[in-house]
Design goal:
By secondary structure, the protein is of the alpha+beta class. Helix content is about 30%, strand content about 15%. The protein folds into two domains: about 10-110; about 145-245, Orthogonal Bundle (DNA polymerase, domain 1). The chain has helices spanning about 70-80, 100-110, 155-165, 175-185, 190-205, 215-225, 235-245; strands at about 20-25, 30-35, 35-45, 50, 55, 60-65, 85, 90-95, 145, 170-175.
């Protein structure tokens, strides 16, 4: 999973500085103030179905707010655009593609961070100290190999391209990504270079809509410049996010 939130990073500016802490959870990030969990964010697309039922929104792409069951009716009266999450019914959910998402999310966060009130949840203490297996990362878009490439380190990108024999030799692009490239009809490094990251992204998403994620775009940009995906410039990240948002949803 990403080490940092991407499209929803701005929400952290709404939380009281130096008072909140963030923790990875279910492939996303949970936010705590003191011991109370007040918010969770998720940035994974391509998941609209659960137990045979299809929902009109992405299940894991937006903000979730924990509210105990007895208080949910009050919360929904104040914010009727929230929905009970299909998998985590204790959580009220605001999908990222909701109209006026930023304004609505800001209003809810302002309520959720109040020290008194019914928003938030204090997790129950663990009964054992046994280590739990890490939640399997979402395979929809996390085909990114964040390990240091075996062949190259900080060489100039031009030298890397001359030596690379296959797509998985490039930085950020592991064997799973290479299979996704092949499925999209991109078989060689020169073909990838000729297309550039935007046309490559379009082909990948067309081949598999689950690849529609800004971090995947970061990885492609990094591969073309021989940089780690999270080391590309902020302007490049912004361009990638805007481009991914412009891609059609299926």
């Amino acid at each position: 999973m990403a080490k940092e939130p991407q499209e929803l990073k701005w929400i952290e500016e709404l939380l009281p500085e130096d008072e909140y802490r963030r923790k990875a959870m279910f492939g996303g990030f949970a936010y705590y103030i003191s011991e109370k969990m007040v918010l969770a964010t998720f940035e994974s697309t391509g998941n609209r179905t659960y137990k045979g039922k299809r929902y009109p929104y992405e299940i894991w792409n937006g903000c979730m707010f924990p509210v105990e069951k007895e208080y949910q009716e009050r919360a929904l009266q104040k914010f009727p655009f929230l929905v009970s999450h299909p998998i985590l019914p204790k959580w009220l959910y605001l999908p990222l593609d909701t109209e006026n998402f930023e304004e609505l999310a800001s209003d809810i966060v302002a309520q959720a961070i109040k020290p008194t009130g019914y928003w938030g949840s204090i997790p129950k203490p663990k009964k054992t100290l046994k280590k739990k297996k890490a939640v399997k990362e979402d395979e929809d878009w996390r085909k990114i190999d964040t390990r240091t490439p075996r062949m190259f380190s900080d060489e100039p990108a031009e030298d890397v391209f001359k030596k690379a024999k296959k797509i998985s030799d490039l930085k950020n692009l592991g064997p799973q990504t290479e299979r996704a490239f092949h499925k999209a009809g991109i078989k060689t490094v020169p073909q990838f270079l000729k297309l550039g990251w935007k046309k490559t992204m379009q082909k990948l998403v067309k081949s598999d809509p689950k690849s529609r994620h800004s971090v995947f775009a970061y990885a492609l940009i990094g591969a073309l410049t021989n940089k780690e995906w999270n080391a590309i410039s902020e302007s490049e990240k912004e361009e990638a996010r805007n481009f991914v948002r412009s891609l059609p949803r299926k």
